[in-house]
Amino acid sequence: MYQEFARVYDEFMQEISYVEWADYIERLWEHHGAKPSLVLDLACGTGGLTLELCRRGYEMIGADMSDSMLNEAMGKAKREQANILYLQQDMREFELYGTVDSILCTCDSLNYLLDSRDIQQVFALVNLYLNPGGTFIFDLNTDYKYKEVLGDSVFADTYEHSAFIWQNYYYPEEHINEYQVTFFEQMGEQPCYRRYEEIHYQRAYSVENITHLLEEAGLKLEAIYDGFTTDPSSEQSERICFVAREIKKNGENSDE
């Protein structure tokens, strides 16, 4: 996933402000009384958010299944001499050396899991590796976004050294959105471009389903927010942010 796209991912996603995203994460921690020190950024991609939080003094671990994405992330960290531990791991099977204070999974990464049993496995591992009372913050694209905003649409854009065509196909019965991405990367200083194609799938999950899976994993859902706000989510929310907390392990309530 994102093997070829990793080299140009940041250029295509340059509208994302990791400073603002980190501001939002810190606001949620404060709002929910969390003071984490050691944080796992699950499905960290090219490490933009991981690095920004490291700059702010958090001890960061980044995990992603894509070696190409991690190469980009480690390159950023090296250039800034940032002490970040990066692990190449599938979020459904991740392992840590110990527990952490908070786990993040942003940028609709969980939407890439097309089976709710995979979501359940991630949540179980989150519970396992969170310190008692630790926070889990993640976001999901909604069915509304796939159906009404992306739909069967085509998006395209050009940059200084690259360009892309992004085609969407939404299958409402399965709640699956298919992305067909064709992108072009300039080859050095030559006036020619290399073409790549990748196909990705994401699935929309209902709030009820996610809430049930969190409870089964021993995680308590504390809040659901609209996008990058602390406003309640609605039927027109395109992205929903969830805040959950570890409350029990092995069937026993943890101290709060």
From TrEMBL:
At the top level, the lineage of the source is Bacteria
Tell me which Gene Ontology terms the entry assigns under biological process.
methylation
Q: Which Pfam families match?
A: Methyltransf_25
Q: Name one GO molecular function term.
A: methyltransferase activity
What are the alphabetically sorted keywords of the record?
Answer: Methyltransferase, Transferase
| Positions of the Methyltransferase domain | 39-134
Q: Which CDD domains match?
A: AdoMet_MTases (cd02440)
Q: Specify the protein name.
A: Class I SAM-dependent methyltransferase
Organism from which the protein derives: Bianquea renquensis
